[in-house]
Amino acid sequence: MPNLIEENKELRENLKQVKKELSFFMKVGKALTSTLELDKVLEIIMENVHCLVKPESWSLLLLDDERNDLYYVIAKGRLPDAVKGVRLQMGEGVAGRVAENGKPLIISSVSKEKRYSSFLKNNNRGFISKSILCVPIINKKKTIGVLETINKKDNTPFHKRDMELMSKLADQAAIAIERSNLYQKMANLAITDDLTKLFNLRYLYRVLDLEVKRSKRYNSIFSVIFLDLDCFKLVNDKYGHLHGSKTLVEVASILVRALREVDIISRYGGDEFVIVLPHTPVEKAIRIAERLQRDINHHHFLKDEGLALKVTASFGVAGFPDHAQDEIELLRLSDQAMYLAKSLGKNRVVIANELSYQKTTSHY
Question: Residue 228: which region, alpha, beta or left (left: phi > 0; alpha: psi -120 to 50)?
Fold first, then answer.
């Protein structure tokens, strides 16, 4: 009889624990479906990692498909800045191994695992790694990331039950991250040009409106560069539209490499591009345009196609509030300055100031 009572008690405790875990993961699922923003999704995941296993340090790594390596996208706990900018090759360290084979891994005692102890010592984490638990984040049979936890706060090693719970959380994380990525891709499609992957005209107008409002509110400045490829029709006529499209993609790459992340580069249409330079005076914008002009001049286009075409561009520069008081006027003046550059012989940079000295016709 006592044994039966003990068994019933244990059964009730197990049932209670199952209900508790079920309730926990239902709440996690509800929280993860409440947002499509990746940053918020990651915060929810990290918050619940802590609730589940109480680690001293925990982080989430995502797979970079282009480079085929892992990068730390978020870290919590002890010295989270220690992993900023750190990237791991597939198979490197604990997280790299988990990502490579797609299976969770527990290291109960790091000091007894020579394979990982040297790697962890060189990671500059600032504290001793005693126990590690890593689980893969898998979506559609492909590892897209890793959840990494180091040291339990109660100083006990991670155990199998921790791994099971973390794996369940990783399953939920995989779905949420995929939803966020899909949402971001759809959002990007709405604001990017299909060919060049630069921003499109719709987004350009939105940015110009915001920059004008911000500049007026904070008494700041910004500049616009309007550029158009010279005689681009000849490229299409001689080599075909496919080669013309590839030329535009190469121009876009030149612009992206040469400019800052904060600069907005958009394809205005055809072979025209518009660049918005936040917090940039006209004088500096002119130097930037001249640098872009040189970069395009020195580039050999369509080398992969067995050609080495030379292409030039004409540039118009205008600044806010130096030349215009609203975004429409600013864009119009930079466009007119570009057309003046063409009328003066092409392959040059013209500032909006020069419009008052020359007669030009806008295509507006």
Answer: beta
